[in-house]
Structures are given as C-alpha cells and as structure tokens.
Amino acid sequence: MNPLMIDIPPGGIAMPNLLSRYAECTIWLARYMERIENLARLIDVTETFVRARSTSTGWLSIVQINADDERFFERHAVASEENVVGFYVIDRENPNSIVSIAHAARENARSLRPLISTEMWMHLNMFTNAISALGPTDIRPSNLSALCARLKQDCQTHHGITEGTFYRDQAWLFYLIGRNLERADQITRLIDIKYHTLLPSVAGVGSEVDIGQWAAVLRSAAAYHAYRRTVPGDMTPAHVVGFLLKNDGFPRSLSTSLRQLHWAVGHLRTDYGLKNGYAAAERIEELRATLAEQTVEDIILRGLHEFLDWVQRELHLVQGEIARAFWPPAMPAAAAPPDPDPGLSQEQSQS
Amino acid sequence: MSDFGSDFGSDPGQHDAQQGPGLFVSYDTPDFYCELMNRRDAAPESLTLIRERLAHFGLTELRQRARVAEADLYNLGITFTVYTDRDAIDRILPVDLIPRVLTAAEWDHVERGVQQRVAAINHFLWDIYHERRILKDGIVPAGLVLGNSNYRPEMEGLDVPGGVYVHINGTDLVRDGAGNFLVLEDNARTPSGVSYVIENRHMMLRSMPDLAAGLDLMPVDEYGPRLRRALTETAPGGIRDAEVVLLSPGIYNSAYFEHVFLAREMGVPLVEGRDLMVENGRVFMRTVAGPRPVHSIYRRLNDDFLDPQVFNPDSMLGVPGLVDAYRRGNVTIANAIGTGVADDKAVYAYMPRIIRYYLGEEPILSNVETHICGEPEGLAYTLANLDRLVVKPVGESGGYGLIIGPHATQAELETFRASLLADPANYISQPVIDLSVCPTLCEAGVEARHVDLRPFAVTGESTWVLPGGLSRVALRKGSLVVNSSQGGGSKDTWVLAS
User: Fold this and answer.
1) Considering only alpha carbons, which residue of chain B is nearest residue A16?
2) Predicted confidence (pLDDT) at residue B448 exceeds the cutoff of 80
3) What is the CATH number of domain B369-431?
C-alpha cells in the first residue's frame, strides 16, 4: 500500500538535523496551501448552489461549517454573497480568509526558505503577492468562478512544483503529513456543506435537485468522473458520501488521506528512527479502523454530521500528538510558561 | 558565460565600426574619476571592449532589460523587508545594469590591502583583550579602547580558536579624484551585503549575457563554501565534522534574505535563538530527533542580543547561556564578541599605526587623510581649516554632531569650534573626498553617479577576499550617500582576471 508519488529513497537519507521549527513550518505551509485550495472549492460549489436557488441557507452554510458564525456576524448583518465572499477572500481581519491564510503560508515559507527550492519560493512569493492584491472587483459574482479556478490552479501548481523539487527527506514527510491532515479535514467539511444545505428541507433528500447538488459536490472535489467511472448505478447520497469518505483510489477521499498520513508518520520512524510519532500513529490507526469498520449507511444512520465532527476533532488531536513528539515546548529550565497544546500554536479558529 | 557567446553574437562592437555614440552620447564627467570612461590613464584592452559593447546598447533596450531584471529580483524574493504594522513590504536593492569594472592589477592591490587590514585588526583585538601592549606602548590611547561602548570585558583573557576574531570583514573603500583607493570605514561586526554581490552577478549574466560574453571575470560563487570552511577551521579544537549554523534574528529582520542566502550557500541550518539551547556549557539545536550539538555559530545578531544572561536581559532573540559556553571554549562565535571596538571611528584613525605596530609594514590601502583632534597637530590643522573639512565625533555617538565645513555657515562653524575646543579628543577631521563615479542608468539617460566598494574578507586559517565586492551607487544626482535606505542602489562588480 505504498501510495504512488510520495516515495522516498529506501532507508531514507542521512540528514539528522531537521530543526523542529522547520518541521512545524513545513506542516503548516502544506496545510495552508491545501486549505486555500479547499476554501476555493467550497466557495465555488456554494456559488453553484446559490445560482441554482437550491439552498435556503445559501452563503451562510460556509460560515456555519467553518464555525465562524460569531466572528462573521460581528462584522456583517446578513450573510449575503458580497459579505460572505468578502469575508472569506479579502478580509484581512478574518484569520480564515484566503488573504490571511496566504499571508500565514507566506510567513511559514519565509521561515523555510533555507529548505525549500527556489522554484517553490518563487511561485509562493508571486502567488501570495497576487492574493494580497485582490480587491472588491475581483470577487464580484461575474469574476468569482474564474477567481476560484485560478486559486485552485495556483495551489495545484504549488503541489506540482513541490512534488518535483522538494528534497526527499524528513521535511518531505512532514509536508505530506500537513497536506494529508488538511485534506482529510477539508473533505469532511465539503461533505458537511451538503449536510447543512439539506438540513432545513429533509423532504428534498433523494430528489432530482438533491442529486444535482451531490453531483456538484463531487465536481467541486474533482471527483465526478472518477465516481461515474467506478460507482455503477444511480447516484444516491449514500454512494456519494461513501465515495468521498471511503474510496481508496480517490486522492482526496478521507480514507486515502488517512492512509497517506499514516504512511508518512510511519516512515519518520522506519526511515529516520523518529520513534516519537507512535502516539500520533496510534490515533490515526484508530481513526482508520473506525472508518473501515462502518458502512456508509451506518454512518449516515448514526448521524453524518456527528461523524464528520468527530473526525475533525480526532485530526486536531493527531496534530497535537505530532507537535508534542517533534516540537516539544522549550526545556523545563527555560523561562517560558508550559504550553498545554503546543501543536495548535498556529491553528486558526476552525473546529 | 562564454558558452552563451555564440548564441548572442559575441561582440556587438563588430556590427558598427564607429565608437563613442549610443549610450554615452551625452555622458561627461570632467570633474571626477570615472571608473569606466575617464580613468586618466590608458584603459586596459578588456575595459575598452566593455565600453564599446555598452556604447552600442540603445537606451530603450537597456531600460527594457532593467525592467525585466527588477521584476526577476522581486519574484525571486531577493529583497530586504520593511515591516510596517500590518504588512511586510519587500523591496529590492535596485541594481544598475552597467557593471563597475576593476582590472586585475587594481584587484591585486585591493585584495592585499584588505588582507593586511584584517590581519592587523585580528592582532589588535587579541592584544586589547589580553596583554594590551599597544595601549601600554602609547600607540592607541587606552581610554579610546577601554572606554569604548563596544569594548566587552567578557572577552578579556579568552583565547578564540586560531586567534580569529573577525571571520567576516567588510572594508568600505572609495576612490578619490586621482583614482586612489582609500578606506572609509572598517566593518568588523556583522557586515552585510554579500548576498547582493552574488545575486547581482547571477542577474547580470541573465540580463546582459552579450556584455559579459567571452570576458574572463573572476567568479563570486565560492563565497559560501569558503565561509563554511573558515567556520569549520575555527571550530573549537578537537572537533571533527563541526556542526556549523547561521544564527538569524528571524524573518522579521530586514536582512533575512541574506541570512537565508548564506545558510543555503554554506549548506548549514539557519537557526533562530529559540532553536538553540545551552546545557552544561554546551550548545544544542532542537531537532525532530532531539537536541543536536552545535560547534560554530555564524551570528547575524549584535552582541547585545546574543545572550540575555549577559547582555540585554530583554532580548528574546538570543540564547541564554551562550556566552558561558563560549567562554568555556565549547563553541565558536563568528564574528567574535567585542569586535566593534576595532571598527569604531576613533580607532579607525589609528589603523595605519596599528598596521605598522603589529605587522611592521606600511599600509597598502591608505585611510582617508584623517586628523586626530586629540593630538595637538591634528587639532591645530583642523581649527585652521574648519571650513574645508568634514569633522566627525568619534566613539559611540557616530553620525551625530558631524559638520561638513564647505556646507556650514559661519555661525555654525563658530559654534562647532567651541565644542571642538571643549573636547578635542572626541573628534577627527577629514577632507571632503571627490568620490569616483560610474555611468549609471538614470531617468534622463546614462549619467555619472558616485560609487563606493565593500570587499568581503573571510578568515579561517588564512584570509580570502571575495573578488570584487558590493559596489553601492548613490542614485540621486550629486549625492554621496550610497546607503540603500537613502536612495542607494548597487552594481555588479566585475574583476577582470587578466
């Protein structure tokens, strides 16, 4: 089960001195770039729903699945398109906006400049500069879809440059850990947006409109064709959710992300002797087992939203275990107060 | 870049026999020594070739290339960063595409002069932190050294490996109206700017391949490996495979790009204070596999910030216990602590005597003619010529209370005369220098702008000088100020190997 494209040389490469801070920044760089891409996907699919007038909660659903209600309504009276898109794309005061995440990605990349390739830095530099320059015109309804496409493409360019130029050592494994942690988290949010969309009109489940929306969810995850090719028969909500959660071949599914996450943590131990990752590995194993031993029908029956919520919390704890293992708080002798949850120093209010 | 020659038409000069017009059509510098156009002697052949090639560039073409080069630097992040309350603003150091060229003979002179100066500075630092012979012999006034704010008692009696205090030195040079190289200032603490030397060269070879084609330029790419070797050579005794790190104040420092650049060129980790810790007098860095020993630290942090236990207690940038580890001989710090006393303006005035004292040689590079007002003849000369001199206070308050005689009013001169007489030892005086110029692309065309030169010397078991150095150019017409914060730019410095 060695996923393609993420191999490292047999036995690893002797490079004993990856600074803890570099490891931390690498994880966050990967997470933030993945997060920008997924936020663009989320905005894109919501725009599709709203345009089709097939949602009663409309733009509010993005706010809800990101648990940003409080912050949003401090600043805006209504969840109009202009307000929500502005809030998530160009609002510098919102730490969960694309411009803020890009800024955070840039700061981490700046710290990592000694480690990352010149090509990686150059692209990140241009990308984040372009995002900082975004203004109200760029997020007008007529430009929104093109903007989302461009953001996605730039994030994918980042992935491609990284895949093609980032040196394969411990830092690469930390990069994969960050990317897959975020990807796993984000797929649960993408599914959840549909849950929110449906909530006020349960009667609509399974209707034509409903199926159209699930197709849109698949498309926003770049999963539509893969789904059509591999899942025969009528499109049902259960099949779509099952595909996004449990399909081992789809690169953005929860099961694939968790498998790759586990692989990367495992290789820190086997290739570099970094045994401290065991607690994180165990937690990921439990998460994978819980996902594997339930059918998607079971999950829906027991409560899809509750399950997704639980996965998000578990992923949060995995990040915490990794932090404790690889960038523990300063030595007891140092004056700094103990940090109860060091892994979350950069985490944004997203839970 | 000679392999590009055939692709770009190796010599634009061949296309047109007529020389002189084009880029330099209205260029005229009768009053100054021009590095390219008016050397007041027969220019070597290779220089003539560069001049001819340049003359055939159109202004539009040069501007176009300059625009592309600038965008390149910005996108590559070859920038210094200015942080405001909410934003990080990256600025590039403007680079002029017309190189500053030094001949092999000129470079030989500068190189030997810099090596001599570095040797003298290292002798001086060892002496003042040990026997203080030079003070006892009355060559340098003791008060100037021991009362200097950059004097560090923590260094007394400490034997640094190889006797090297200044591993990295930057010597600021100017050329006078006759083309003589003069030392304006020594930078023996944490001199910066070397990354621009190397990046400027890369950029020039990308932007002006047809200008450089076939020329025998001395390379600048060796700096990183040389620096790492020097830091390894001066690691604490008995250490094999010394772990070298570069200690940076972090991403918010304006010179962070240079720190990154040097760490990469050396192939060593770039660490911040929080990445290091001291246990039982030994220095470690925090890695994902736990603490790992560190032996040699190239620090880009001032003395005051290095160790909150010894210096500024509020510093969050330093490493508690670092000085203790240093004093125990377990780690090398480059440059050593307390080198600031050697590059002080007051000590500068004595540098020719310091060279003679320790090395028994005449200085190869002269100081700018300097009168020490603490000495009777110097004071008398200064008082008699106040309206023609630059008079600078020495010691810690460098930069303040300076007077430029030719620019001062009679009243200002009289007021200044009083302060000078009240405390003569606090002042030195120098003539106003007609800095040399270089043709530079400006808004109105190619015009003469003043330049200086900062060669970088790396010292381990021996001293190596990076060929060329940073040529800073004052982009404002007539300005003598080359600092990047005040409208300064830079030029690639080409040293012709033959």
Assistant:
1) B289
2) yes
3) 3.30.1490.270
